[in-house]
Amino acid sequence: MNQNALFDDLEELSSAEDFLNYFGVEYDAKVVHINRLHIMQRFHDYLQKGKGALADDCSEEAARKIYRALLEQAYLDFVTSDAQTEKVFKVFRMNEPQSTFVSLESLLEG
Hints:
The chain is mainly α. It has helices at 4-12, 16-22, 29-49, 60-79, 83-86, 90-93, 104-108. The protein has one domain (4-108). Helix 3 (29-49) crosses helix 4.
């Protein structure tokens, strides 16, 4: 994969805004402020699913286009939806808490 410069650049980015600016994705600061972690996790998830598109002989220019498209899609997911609906993090996918009954007798035994 001839993408060393891209990976070097990505190592320098530290915020959702940095990534969006780097890839030239227009964004609403309010959406990013509320959903920054969700956007970045979704971007990561999309990258994991799209590994096949980033072939070993993929050019840096092609890789940049793929990364940009995936980041833009991750951002747009939260423009039209919200974190609870998208369920990016496990906490949003967990079932409702289960109630358990413990009788007084079982506490007194033993």
